[in-house]
Design brief:
This protein is α/β, with parallel strands linked by helices and about 650 residues long. The chain contains 22 helices and 27 strands. The strands form seven sheets. The protein has an eight-stranded parallel barrel with strand order 3-4-5-8-9-10-11-12, surrounded by seven helices. Strand 20, helix 20 and strand 21 form a beta-alpha-beta unit.
Length: about 650
């Protein structure tokens, strides 16, 4: 029998008396897949079943509403506040068990962070009536009677979870929600038994555990997602977090997931530049002071990295959220030693943007099957194996080639460059965007494995297509720089951003003006700043692009500010000169001195080949990715998947 490559990951672990087959936990990530009324549906069952089939030891179902509608948290949220939801929840737990995993649910109350859009405009409740919300609404301070009622709601919800077949429950005690609000001096100003010292501030969490034990049984495991550090002055620091954790153990919780509280949106929903496992130190410190299991979370993407955490005893379990959204089979692949076949989460936060900023179901750039039906996910063998020619080895072309080959077609992938990746090679250059190379590494390994022939350094034209005589042609030739009609644009001191990010051009220790303040311009500025350049960005509009994922946008803007990169808003380019740029700013012309001018306007499709082929008879021709319209990775991979699955 072959030895398991990552033995620590796949040794059994205990939460109370619950024995898990491995140390991998899928956490409660809000999906917006539930019905509007909060019921389980086929989409929810499929999503969690896939992650259970993929090999996770424990699946924790997303934030459950325990008090409807006042505690409703999100556009659609599963409910556990009434017995009428038990049948649907039973189906969900059974599906997870049938797929080989244990199942838990997270019990959640948003407290003062309730979203009035979803809570019927009911006034939020909180430990204290303080002004803390951005909208200035002051929550209602919970009376002792109302606290008692909420404690019963938590306990009743846990009982329903047990009756529905779940193996454990988790209490949401982090992320600035109600239990966290009792724990933190930032929001708990009470002078009664629920406020003041640590034992009093932990009392609400302690009594939740006590009530659950009395109603459900002391042996029923209860874990807690615990705020052990906050990123606002006056909030919980790690030393206080340790003292809170000791109290949490004392009152009977069976596991702590070491997490963060207030001030941590960027820290909790990390954008791409955050390093792998940066939050592990929280679990490591908590583990020093408690005897119950401690789980760690936060940008853990690779089995070797996770194994090392466990080997070094920094945590007892690893929590893989976005990691298992990107690839539900991460555990199985790791167990088989096939880590190169894992689709690693790149941290693009499309899932976060959908759920937290757009009130939409979560989606994934690298996994187009997230939230889709079983029929969509299925890759059925093609009735007839066809000769398929894919032109362009960017994300759209690579995914189309992979899917078509998996379905039994004879696929050859061509690209004029000498490497796979297309614009991923450009997009991965700015500081913090290196994870995009993970996609290139994945396809480099996977495409030959599924039978795709790869021919690089070969430019394809209409004649070559005719000579090769494929039955299907997929054109994924990407985009090209857009050069605006500005006077002086052909000056020798003008470059395009794509040539800089592809490292065809090197600019160092110069005064640089970047024309264009979208994502391309901002990231080009970030990269050029690492080469000691002094940079000014000229932007036509007042706002930073809404097309940029909001958390990353805020991070990027703060980085540009830290690097002393200047942005001039609402300015137009009058002309380019050999030693600078003339701009119109507030109706007046002025000169911005520059050694180099970089054009960073949105690219345009490179699709001439498609239109020449589309006029020919005898070929089925598809146009996908940026060649169709320059957009994002999620669009490219989805179109590649759809076309590859349609042939």
């Amino acid at each position: 029998m072959q030895a398991i490559k990552f033995p620590k990951l796949f040794e059994p672990g205990y939460i109370g008396k619950l024995k898990l087959k491995n140390r991998i936990i899928f956490p409660p990530i809000s999906t917006n897949f539930a019905s509007v009324s909060g019921e389980v549906n086929e989409k929810i069952i499929k999503f969690y079943t896939e992650r259970a089939r993929g090999g996770a030891g424990l699946i924790i179902i997303e934030n459950m509403c325990i008090d409807y509608p006042s505690a409703r948290h999100g556009a659609t949220q599963l409910r556990i506040d009434s017995d009428v939801f038990i049948p649907g929840l039973s189906e969900l737990s059974q599906a997870i068990h049938d797929a080989g995993s244990f199942a838990s649910v997270e019990l959640t109350h948003p407290g003062l962070n309730a979203d009035l859009r979803f809570s019927n405009n009911l006034k939020p409740v909180a430990p204290s009536a303080i002004e803390f919300r951005k909208d200035g609404i002051i929550p209602e301070e919970l009376t002792l009677d109302k606290i008692d009622t909420l404690l019963q709601k938590y306990a009743q919800a846990a009982l329903r979870a047990k009756r529905a077949g779940f193996d454990a429950v988790e209490i949401q005690g982090a992320h600035g929600l109600l239990v966290n609000q009792f724990l933190s001096f930032l929001t708990n100003k009470r002078s009664d038994k629920y406020g003041g010292g640590i034992r009093n501030r932990v009392r609400f969490a302690a009594e939740i555990r006590e009530r659950i034990g009395k109603l459900v049984g002391e042996d029923f495991p209860v874990s807690i997602r615990l705020a052990v550090k906050e990123f606002i002055s006056g909030g919980i620091d790690l030393e206080e977090g340790k003292r809170i954790a000791r109290e949490i153990q004392r009152v009977g919780y069976n596991m702590i997931q070491a997490d963060i509280g207030f001030g941590g949106r960027e820290k909790r929903l990390e954008p791409m530049p955050y390093p792998q496992g940066w939050r592990v130190y929280l679990a490591e410190e908590i583990k020093k002071v408690v005897d119950i299991p401690v789980a760690t979370v936060g940008v853990i993407r690779e089995p070797g990295f996770a194994e090392k955490i466990l080997e070094e005893e920094k945590a007892d379990f690893v929590v893989l959220g976005r990691t298992l959204i990107a690839d539900p089979e991460w555990p199985l692949k790791a167990k088989r030693g096939e880590e190169k076949s894992i689709v690693r989460c790149i941290g693009c936060n499309e899932c976060v943007r959908a759920r937290h900023f757009e009130d939409r179901p979560i989606r994934c750039s690298v996994n187009p099957t997230v939230g889709r039906s079983w029929d969509f996910t299925a890759l059925n063998k093609a009735w007839v194996s066809k000769k398929v020619m894919v032109i362009g080895a960017g994300p759209a072309g690579m995914e189309a080639a992979r899917i078509a080959a998996l379905r039994g077609h004879k696929v050859t992938l061509y690209d004029k460059e000498n490497n796979l990746g297309g614009t991923l090679n450009i997009a991965s250059t700015p500081p913090g965007k290196e994870k995009l190379r993970w996609l290139i590494e994945y396809f480099t390994y996977e495409l030959p494995k599924v039978g795709v022939k790869i021919k690089l350094g070969e430019e394809i034209n209409e004649k070559k297509v005719k000579d090769l005589n494929p039955q299907v042609v997929i054109v994924a030739t990407g985009s090209k720089p857009q050069v605006p009609p500005i006077k002086g644009i052909n000056s020798p001191n003008v470059e395009v951003a794509q040539d800089i990010l592809s490292k065809k051009i090197r600019i160092e220790n110069k005064n640089v003006v970047i024309i264009g303040g979208g994502l391309l311009g901002l990231e080009t500025a970030s990269f050029l700043s690492t080469l000691r350049n002094r940079i000014t960005i000229i932007k036509r509009y007042r706002t930073i692009s809404k097309n940029i994922e909001p958390i990353y946008r805020d991070y990027l803007v703060s980085e540009l500010d830290r690097r002393n990169i200047k942005i001039i808003f609402e300015a137009k380019i009058a002309k380019i000169e050999t030693n600078g740029v003339i701009i119109k700013d507030k109706g007046e012309e002025r000169k911005i001195p520059a050694d180099k001018i970089v054009i960073a306007r949105s690219p345009k499709p490179q699709n001439e080949l498609f239109y020449s082929l589309n006029n020919l008879k005898g070929y089925k021709v598809f146009l996908i990715g940026d060649a169709r319209e320059p957009r994002k990775i999620i669009n490219a991979i989805e179109e590649g998947f759809l076309v590859g699955n349609s042939i």
